[in-house]
Amino acid sequence: MTEEKQDEIYGRLMREYQEILTKLAACSAELKRIGESFRRLGTDMIDRRDPLAIDQASFNADVAITQVLVVQYAELAAKKADKQAELEKFGPLPRFDAA
To answer: How much is the pTM?
Structure first.
C-alpha cells in the first residue's frame, strides 16, 4: 500500500474516531444530566416533608430516553474501542481523547 493511500485511510479513520468521540461525549452529558435530575428527585423524596412538585412531562421524557441512551452509549463505546484498534495499527493515538 502506498504512503498516500495509508494517509488517506488514517485521515478517514481519525475523522470517524473523532465523530464517535463527539457523539459519546454528547450521550454521556445527557445521561449525566438525567442522573443529576434523578438524584435531586431522590434527595427531595427522602428529605422533604412538603408534597413534591414534579414536572411530569420532563420526568416521563427522561425516563423514556434513558434506556435508549444507555444502549447508544454502549454501542458508541464499542465503536470507539474498535476504531482505536484500527488506528493503533498506524501507531500510538494522539492524546486528545478525553472521553
So the answer is: 0.82
